[in-house]
């Protein structure tokens, strides 16, 4: 019997190991450097206020020096009393288990040391395929022998304290708590450093069977019995005095449970509106090649990579945006009023707000207003997590005359001056666009116009003519360079290389766009033509505190959170566009005349500093927009029914986006010094 009992141990170093020696050695090397999956944290801009976390396994890696000796002693007492004397495999334990299992004709005892258990956990956690997971956990003698061999080899690579640290960071304690940091927080709302002997014994007792010994269940009898067993073992090993152990066994298990947040829906109520920015961050992350080859890999990195991420929202500007959207009715209207604020020169998103509550609970939402939707489909208000502001897969909303910026900017970039003049009729028949004949919103717009007056009054016929001069395809291409994407089949067809030159209606904003896109496109003009990709973060750090890097197309290493900017139009053209864009807001351009009136002439007085922008409405005012910027900030606001675009908001509500943007810029910039726009050169003025 003794010789038979010795067989499994011999196999670990003999015949069984010989067949797989090279594979085992390679795996052992990998496990000596591999770290377990770790939770990623999303912080407010102060870098300390936690907004939410992302995880599949809630875990925060903790150094052994930051753990109480009580938990180290308790886990040895519970799982492997000879941990500090064996070399990865415990011969006495193997023999005892072999005899017990042989006598019971089954598996009644295990012989896994802490090192062997860590090997199993590490193999499972590092598995990349279902087959590897199965091989790491299947109950076979071959798996056990490999595990023994790897445990012996691992103890040659790592010290006992290093193995203990990794074990306590890998073990599962139940209630989604992976590792001792999560277990301490979830069960006792404290750090591992502060665990008492009673608490440590309770947690150590869970590892054997987290569900059976769960102290958070209605009946703590099993958990108490297991805890008391661990306390007795701690006394037997000299970690506790007999009296201390006896006293500890009389204490009830006192839990202070914590439910750690996970994902955007768990953002605290105080920061509810930040959920839309959080959701945009996730969509942005899933599109970054730095985190994997596809969306699945990238989201897996977010939930397992242990990143520390700081959101780019500015609390002051976000508060201003929240206050100024949907002023009359924040959440009870089918019409969504939203705003996005971006920072020129960086692309960082400073505010995202909409008159909706960020929530997955749609129970109290009315039926959708879309006549083609099923009666069971819920409306998008008052609760939603739909990306109404952009950054997701929704197409957006027709942006109307805010698109006039693109042909004007293309014309200026091509060398046409601001003074380019056209006697704009009330209706203009275009031969370039196959006889299409758009008209102006008012007869008062008829007459000689320049870029200043044409933009300030939003003269359709002037801009259709201007688009003809520069080429609609040039305007479409410029919009693409400024970040616009075509998300509907109709838009993609018109924007295609073979059709773009004939897309005359492009200048009137018949394409869908999102406020995120429009704010960022106009921010590029504020930044003298330098476009920066929209960026929802200020920093992303790896678990070791170093900035997360990626390789650019030219092979240069760069921080993922660093602004990604490029010059799209020349600076003088951008400054000229800004000069014309001061006309709609009631501001005074540096070089020309606005023609006596404008579409949003109250904005300059509200903002109280130089401001440029453009209004936009669609047919029958189904949606209304306003996009504006100062040298410091760019903001885009819309009002529309996301469920039913044919539900017109009406002229009476077209002022809402104008007020939302003007007041947000005013409040967000309060207390900051006033900056002036740089005027264009005389050459481009003409």
From TrEMBL:
<keyword id="KW-0378">Hydrolase</keyword>
<dbReference type="InterPro" id="IPR023346">
    <property type="entry name" value="Lysozyme-like_dom_sf"/>
</dbReference>
<dbReference type="InterPro" id="IPR012338">
    <property type="entry name" value="Beta-lactam/transpept-like"/>
</dbReference>
<keyword id="KW-0573">Peptidoglycan synthesis</keyword>
<comment type="similarity">
    <text>In the N-terminal section; belongs to the glycosyltransferase 51 family.</text>
</comment>
<keyword id="KW-0133">Cell shape</keyword>
<dbReference type="GO" id="GO:0009252">
    <property type="term" value="P:peptidoglycan biosynthetic process"/>
</dbReference>
<dbReference type="GO" id="GO:0008955">
    <property type="term" value="F:peptidoglycan glycosyltransferase activity"/>
</dbReference>
<dbReference type="InterPro" id="IPR050396">
    <property type="entry name" value="Glycosyltr_51/Transpeptidase"/>
</dbReference>
<dbReference type="GO" id="GO:0071555">
    <property type="term" value="P:cell wall organization"/>
</dbReference>
<keyword id="KW-0511">Multifunctional enzyme</keyword>
<protein>
    <submittedName>
        <fullName>Membrane carboxypeptidase (Penicillin-binding protein)</fullName>
    </submittedName>
</protein>
<comment type="similarity">
    <text>In the C-terminal section; belongs to the transpeptidase family.</text>
</comment>
<keyword id="KW-0121">Carboxypeptidase</keyword>
<dbReference type="GO" id="GO:0009002">
    <property type="term" value="F:serine-type D-Ala-D-Ala carboxypeptidase activity"/>
</dbReference>
<keyword id="KW-0645">Protease</keyword>
<keyword id="KW-0808">Transferase</keyword>
<dbReference type="GO" id="GO:0006508">
    <property type="term" value="P:proteolysis"/>
</dbReference>
<dbReference type="GO" id="GO:0008658">
    <property type="term" value="F:penicillin binding"/>
</dbReference>
<keyword id="KW-0961">Cell wall biogenesis/degradation</keyword>
<dbReference type="Pfam" id="PF00905">
    <property type="entry name" value="Transpeptidase"/>
</dbReference>
<feature type="domain" description="Glycosyl transferase family 51">
    <location>
        <begin position="51"/>
        <end position="234"/>
    </location>
</feature>
<dbReference type="InterPro" id="IPR001460">
    <property type="entry name" value="PCN-bd_Tpept"/>
</dbReference>
<dbReference type="GO" id="GO:0008360">
    <property type="term" value="P:regulation of cell shape"/>
</dbReference>
<keyword id="KW-0328">Glycosyltransferase</keyword>
<dbReference type="Pfam" id="PF00912">
    <property type="entry name" value="Transgly"/>
</dbReference>
<dbReference type="InterPro" id="IPR036950">
    <property type="entry name" value="PBP_transglycosylase"/>
</dbReference>
<dbReference type="InterPro" id="IPR001264">
    <property type="entry name" value="Glyco_trans_51"/>
</dbReference>
<dbReference type="GO" id="GO:0030288">
    <property type="term" value="C:outer membrane-bounded periplasmic space"/>
</dbReference>
<feature type="domain" description="Penicillin-binding protein transpeptidase">
    <location>
        <begin position="339"/>
        <end position="642"/>
    </location>
</feature>
């Amino acid at each position: 019997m003794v010789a038979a009992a010795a067989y499994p141990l011999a196999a670990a170093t003999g015949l069984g190991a010989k067949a797989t020696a090279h594979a085992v050695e390679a795996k052992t090397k990998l496990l000596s450097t591999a770290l377990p999956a770790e939770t990623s944290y999303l912080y407010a801009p102060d870098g300390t206020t936690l907004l939410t976390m992302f995880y599949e396994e809630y875990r925060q890696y903790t150094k052994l020096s930051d753990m109480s000796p009580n938990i180290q002693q308790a886990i040895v007492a519970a799982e492997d009393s000879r941990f500090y004397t064996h070399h990865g495999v415990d011969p006495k334990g193997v023999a005892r288990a072999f005899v017990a299992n042989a006598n019971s004709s089954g598996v009644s005892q295990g012989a896994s040391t802490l090192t062997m258990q860590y090997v199993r956990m590490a193999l499972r956690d590092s598995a990349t395929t279902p087959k590897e997971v199965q091989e790491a956990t299947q109950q076979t003698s071959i798996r056990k022998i490999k595990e023994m061999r790897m445990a012996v080899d691992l103890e040659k690579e790592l010290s006992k304290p290093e193995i203990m640290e990794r074990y306590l960071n890998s073990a599962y304690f139940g209630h989604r708590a992976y590792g001792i940091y999560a277990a301490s927080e979830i069960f006792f709302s404290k750090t591992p450093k502060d665990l008492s002997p009673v608490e440590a014994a309770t947690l150590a007792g869970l590892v054997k069977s987290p569900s059976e010994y769960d102290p958070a269940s209605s009946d703590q009898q099993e958990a108490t019995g297991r805890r008391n067993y661990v306390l007795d073992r701690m006394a037997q090993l000299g970690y506790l005095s007999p009296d201390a152990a006896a006293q500890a066994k009389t204490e009830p298990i006192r839990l202070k449970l914590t439910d750690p947040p996970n994902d955007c829906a768990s953002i605290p109520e105080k920061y509810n509106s930040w959920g839309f920015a959080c959701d945009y961050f996730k969509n942005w992350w899933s599109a970054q090649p730095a985190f994997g080859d596809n969306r699945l890999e990238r989201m897996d990195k977010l939930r397992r990579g242990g990143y520390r991420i700081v959101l780019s929202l500015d609390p002051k500007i976000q508060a201003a945006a929240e206050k100024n959207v949907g002023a009359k009715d924040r959440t009870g209207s089918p019409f969504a009023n939203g705003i996005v604020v971006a920072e020129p020169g960086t692309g960082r998103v400073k505010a995202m707000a909409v008159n909706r509550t960020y929530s997955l609970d749609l129970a109290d939402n009315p039926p959708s207003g879309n006549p083609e939707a099923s009666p069971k489909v819920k409306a998008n208000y008052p609760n939603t997590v739909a990306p109404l502001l952009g950054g997701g897969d929704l197409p957006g909303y027709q942006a109307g005359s805010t698109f006039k910026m693109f042909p004007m900017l293309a014309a200026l970039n091509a060398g046409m001056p601001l003074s380019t003049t056209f006697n704009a009729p009330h209706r203009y028949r275009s031969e370039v666009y196959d006889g299409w004949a758009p008209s102006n919103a008012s007869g008062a717009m008829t007459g000689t116009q320049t870029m200043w007056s044409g933009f300030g009054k939003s003269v359709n016929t002037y801009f259709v003519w201007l688009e003809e001069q520069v080429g609609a395809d040039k305007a479409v291409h410029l919009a693409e360079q400024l970040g616009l994407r075509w998300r509907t089949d109709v838009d993609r067809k018109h924007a295609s290389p073979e059709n773009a030159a004939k897309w005359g209606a492009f200048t009137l904003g018949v394409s869908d766009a999102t406020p995120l896109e429009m704010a960022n496109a106009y921010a590029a003009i504020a930044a003298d033509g330098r476009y920066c990709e929209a960026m929802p973060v200020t920093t992303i750090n790896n678990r070791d505190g170093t900035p997360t890097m990626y390789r650019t197309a030219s092979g240069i290493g760069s921080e993922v959170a660093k602004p990604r900017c490029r010059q799209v139009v020349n600076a003088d053209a951008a400054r000229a566009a800004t000069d014309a864009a001061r006309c709609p807001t009631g501001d005074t351009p540096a070089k020309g005349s606005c023609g006596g009136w404008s579409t949003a002439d109250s904005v300059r007085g509200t903002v109280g500093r130089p401001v440029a922008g453009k209004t936009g409405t669609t047919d029958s005012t189904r949606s209304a927009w306003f996009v504006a910027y100062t040298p410091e900030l760019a903001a885009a606001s819309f009002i529309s029914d996301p469920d039913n675009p044919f539900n017109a908001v009406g002229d009476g509500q077209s002022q809402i986006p104008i007020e939302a943007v003007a007041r947000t810029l005013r409040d967000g910039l309060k207390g900051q010094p006033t900056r002036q726009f740089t005027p264009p050169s005389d050459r481009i003025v003409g």
